[in-house]
Design a protein that fits this description.
The chain has a 5-stranded parallel sheet, with helices on both faces. The two termini are about 20 Å apart. It is about 45% helix and about 5% strand. The chain is an alpha/beta fold. About 45% of the residues are buried. The longest helix has 25 residues. The protein contains 15 helices and 7 strands.
């Protein structure tokens, strides 16, 4: 999150779809108040001195954090990275800002809004979460249109692609973006089929100014635009990041996040110059995602799993990935402001610790079982923690 001065509005650009206004759901154990790891994070980051997080003691936590923020100023986000032991963080943000800039922070903006240029009222009516999410996407699309000098989607699909979509991606690239982020699984299925241009053009022309299209027809347009964006990212040298994991909220459709739904995208010869990173390692579809690593342009990170799962549990999955295609596996945290108690600082610190512990357990087991040598274990650790990402993003 960017640095905010006293009196400034809070930072709301840390996510295109903030998940703090959703219907109540059953939180995972590691996200509940007083969850394991929070106390250690508070101590390590801010010098919290109490032995527990009982309310009468936890009141000290915010004041300690504010003191460090004031002391570090614009350098506060980088200070947090130092405490996490992280050199470079990929920052999923609508826009960058104070304290979050290169070289320590590399921008990953959001592309989902570009998939939905028509009337989204039918999609938003599916459930309360999507109602809030599509309102957010409509706002972001309007900002992209404004950047293109437009007040609304242009007359034809060709004009939309050439005057809005591609220029938006190019502006992101010029602004330092290393990838484009899709949270599409919160909005629809990840099954992006190959669609004939004429069919997509017809849907756009028919419904640009005539109300909400039927969901099946609208999907044709979304699928076509997604593949156009993916191809343009390949041309521009940016990766495509896709949320592949069960998501927040009680209305999230888990089966729509199955990474196997991306297989036709990964197999498309027209997209072989585009690298796809399946974020969060596909949980609960971790074995399915393993098989996809054979695709030459398929990668994954284990963000969020490193926060939500105990290291011993994550290590089992991590070992399978390392035994299959270790050059495609990347450390990550999912540092996110989940609550006042667990901000991006605490969640990032906890996830970075567990991510390393899980990796050590996985490599230690492979070493004990005679699958790898000690030198190979160290080589694999370097690849996962650093080398694979440096190569993929050209760092």
């Amino acid at each position: 999150m960017r640095v905010v001065s006293p009196g400034e509005p809070p930072d709301r650009e840390f996510d295109a779809l903030p998940v703090d206004n959703m219907e109540p759901s059953s939180d995972p154990v590691y996200l509940r108040p007083g969850a394991p790891g929070i106390l250690e994070a508070c101590r390590s980051l801010f010098g919290y001195s109490y032995p527990d997080l009982r309310p009468e003691n936890a009141r000290e936590h915010p004041s300690l954090k504010r003191r460090v923020m004031e002391r570090e100023g614009d350098g506060y986000p980088a200070w947090v990275l130092d405490r996490m032991g992280v050199e470079v963080m990929l920052a999923d943000r609508v826009r960058m800002g104070r304290g979050v800039g290169a070289p320590r922070f590399r921008w990953v903006p959001y592309a989902d809004a570009l998939l939905f240029p028509l009337d989204n009222t039918q999609l938003a009516a599916r459930n309360s979460d999507r109602k809030a999410f599509f309102a957010d996407e409509d706002i972001l699309l309007r900002s992209y249109l404004k950047d293109a000098g437009l007040s609304g989607p242009p007359a034809t699909l060709d004009e939309y692609l050439t005057h809005v979509v591609t220029p938006t991606l190019e502006r992101h690239k010029q602004g330092g973006a290393v990838a484009e982020k899709f949270e599409a699984a919160y909005l629809r299925s990840l099954e992006f089929d190959k669609v004939d241009r004429a069919a997509a053009t017809k849907v756009y022309a028919q419904y640009r100014a005539k109300g909400a299209p039927p969901e099946a027809l609208y999907k044709l347009l979304q699928d076509y635009v997604f593949r156009h964006i993916a191809a343009e990212c390949g041309r521009l040298g940016m990766a495509v990041h896709i949320h592949t994991m069960a998501g927040a909220g009680s209305c999230f459709e888990v089966r729509g996040a199955d990474p196997l739904l991306l297989e036709s995208v990964l197999n498309d010869p027209a997209l072989r110059k585009t690298n796809f990173v399946m974020l969060h390692g596909g949980w609960p579809f971790t074995r399915e995602i393993t098989a996809l690593l054979e695709k030459p342009n398929a990668y994954l990170d284990y963000s969020a799993q490193s926060l939500l799962l105990p290291p011993a549990t994550l290590a089992v999955t991590l070992r399978e990935w390392l035994e299959w295609v270790p050059e495609k596996v990347m450390f990550a945290t999912d540092a996110y402001p989940y609550s006042d108690e667990m901000g991006w600082e605490e969640s990032g610190w906890i996830a970075s610790q567990r991510a390393r512990q899980a990796l050590a357990i996985a490599l230690g087991g492979m070493l004990r079982d005679g699958e790898i040598s000690r030198s190979r274990a160290l080589e694999l650790a370097n690849l996962v923690l650093r080398g694979n990402a440096r190569k993929l993003y050209g760092l």
